[in-house]
Amino acid sequence: MGTQAPSHKDYARNNSFEEKLAKQKAIDDWLPITSSRNAKWWYSAFHNVTAMVGAGVLSLPYAMSELGWGPGVVVLVLSWIITLYTLWQMVEMHEMVPGKRFDRYHELGQYAFGEKLGLYIVVPQQVVVEVGVCIVYMVTGGKSLKKFHDTVCSTCKQIKLTYFIMIFASVHFVLSHLPNFNSISGVSLAAAVMSLSYSTIAWGASISKGVQDDVQYGYKAKTAAGTVFNFFSALGDVAFAYAGHNVVLEIQATIPSTPEKPSKVPMWRGVIVAYIVVALCYFPVALIGYWVFGNSVQDNILISLEKPAWLIAMANMFVVVHVIGSYQIYAMPVFDMIETVLVKKLNFKPSRTLRFFVRNFYVALTMFIAITFPFFGGLLGFFGGFAFAPTTYFLPCIMWLAVYKPRRFGLSWWTNWICIVFGVFLMVLSPIGGLRQIILQAKHYQFYS
Questions:
Q1: Mean pLDDT, residues 88-106
Q2: How far apart (Å, rounded) are the C-alpha atoms in residues 391 and 234?
Q3: Phi and psi at residue 295, in whole multiples of 5°?
Q4: Which of 27, 176, 352, 398 is the most exposed place for a label (fewest CB within 10 A)?
Q5: Among 253, 395, 240, 242, which residue's Cα sits nearest to residue 336?
Q6: Residues 12-38: pLDDT tens digits?
Q7: Which residue, 51, 419, 101, is CA-closest to 248?
Q8: Helix (H) or strand (E) run with residue 333 in it
């Protein structure tokens, strides 16, 4: 019996399948996350430093003053260990299915929880974190530029914060058109160096100032309730200091991978270097800042330092350069999401024009919100609590339990559940503190201030 020759229908079906694959590949080669996969391990190091070390490091001494020595040190160290562990889980899960890479956080969520549920769980939280951080960095960049201007030229005419936010945004109207993660590696490297620089200025200048004469380490609040709420709020501040997990898989997606040399090896090397830098930024600033100023420390340690003026001006400029890089790192996955929806769902043609309009619109939107709500950082303490803690502290653990199903009451099982309990604890308590801060400060809030 002879074999039957393939029919015309089979050829047509194969052709249409190949066309679909080719079209899919062309789109993936255009999208910002998957278009370039030739990153070196050190790219992952400085991308992670830029993503994790926010200008929030300067408020860590203030958080310490609300936590106190014992709880403060415990929360700082525990957060460092737990977030390093959950980051390791994400790096491991990136290629747990042979031949497939989970290039985006929500793709991993869909694999762990199912197509629909994974999207509903991960995407809203990721969007809140990434868009929220971009808006906060718009405000931070504008405020740091204003502080630089006021320090260098104290006799000059006062300029509104609104204009400084616009100046800061103007940089992003240019940088946002860099196509993918690898193309912003130069910006990211500069940002990582700056974060280490201004952190060093903060604790170095504190040491040279010496412990203040009337320093006190007790809680500032007059009432027990005030102390408890401040404690909750400070927990939130520390939790948000470690919020780089939202872009980890997207960073790993840029590293080349083969079965012999999987991407997790260079990625993990980069993460270790990044976490050492994070420790060098966070611990000295938090502990030395609190040791020198006690509970009278301002919520930005550079304000407490005041002098020498040239050094404080320089530190503020370093903050500006750093948040320029951080904004780009957090904006890239958002660009990827928007462009994916437009090209894959709404069938827009992948083009430079589409990218031009999408990215300019996003920068303009974040700028407008930052100008309208210059107190957005206070709001993020509340809203962020619902999104930062899960995506960083316990969502990776839940995915790990769902996918690997470790033995009940074994070491892996216990470790994950301890992280989940700690993360839920943070998620519930920090918004309570954040909400109280909003209520207390609302009378000082000014739109378009």
A1: 88
A2: 19
A3: -80, 0
A4: 352
A5: 253
A6: 555 667 777 777 788 878 888 887 788
A7: 51
A8: helix 309-340
